[in-house]
Amino acid sequence: MDPDEPVRRALVLGTANVVLVGLASLAQWVAWLGENAAGLQPTPPDAWRALGVVVASVGPGLVAVGVCLGALRITERGWPFRLTAAAVASVVAGTARLVVLLELRRTPGDVWFVAAEAGFGVLVVLAALLVPVYDHDVTARARREEARRIEEERRAAEARHQAEVAELEVRRDVSRRLHGTVQQRLVLASVELEALADTVQPAATADRVRAVAGELDEVREQDVREISRSLLPAGVDIGLREALYVALGRLPASVATSVTFTDLVAAHLDDPDRPHLSVVDRLLVLDVVEEAVTNAVRHGGAGSVAVALDVDLPTGPGEGPALVVTVDDDGSGPAAGVQLSGLARLDERARGRGGAVTLGPGTHGGGRVQVRLPVGPSADART
Questions:
Q1: Which residue range(s) make up the domain with 300?
Q2: What transmembrane ranges does the database entry give (predicted)?
Q3: CB under 8 Å to 238, separation ≥6 — which residues?
Q4: Which of 69, 192, 222, 304 has CB 3.0 to 4.6 Å from 256, enough for a Cys bridge?
Q5: Using one digit for the tens of pLDDT, what is the confidence trace for 201-217?
Q6: Within this chain, do residues 23 and 138 fall inside the same structural domain, yes or no?
């Protein structure tokens, strides 16, 4: 923000106050003139006297505004200096105004009239100075609060980004260790057991040892690889659609699958060159889709699964675009009253990112799982 902008704002506000009061003084003088015309006997034309009233009411006030708000910049000083400068300027400007008005009006030197005019002139200039000062303080406070809010949001986003980076690093590290170190040790253990089976007696014991070796191979080939894959699914670093294709491709051939997406998703949200969806968000969506598909096939007997990606555009102030991923199946659908703990945990994760996971009846007679996540241009900074 321009550092002189608050000063200009104060000058405009103070000038407007002085001009408005000057016009009010002119109206007051015209009314007074009409009531007392018989005893005035003005020498100059009334138009010049009217102009003189305006100048007398506006001129000293404008000078006070220029000196206090422009030259002294009392808006940037403490309240003791503000009040002292405003009081002195108000008394000087009010006195100058009174002297000119008394001369123009040719009025009797009535004490109450003089006191009222003097007090009015001082209060006018004082208000013209202190109202901009108050406005400056209120505006400055609002700007500080806005800056504080923006800074807090920035820090929260930075903390979230660091947490996401740490989570991804842990996922990659654990996946790498499972795929490398753990699997290697399981292979060695299986080989050792096979060798041990050739040396032990009786035959039943040897067969049991070979069975354990086979179980280790099965754990290595299925469980360990599945855990490693779930930590960092294939294709997730490239894009959400690529990861969905890979995940659905592992389903049995008897289950028909489809992935559809709008042009907005393809061109902007899931563009590999300009991703607006962080890897953590992709992992969350992928986990929801896999959980929904697993429930549909295993518990609902689904023969087809359809995944649709779309973007909801904002409809009101303060809203942002949101990715909406819908999973429909043709199975039996969710049973009434059944609590699915897997989806509940995923919903908790989604709510932590400003989204939600919902479960309900689908359009094909089965179930519908939908995940909604807010997205935006800042998401690529969190990838």
A1: 234-383
A2: 12-31, 51-72, 79-100, 112-134
A3: 272
A4: 304
A5: 788 888 888 888 888 88
A6: yes
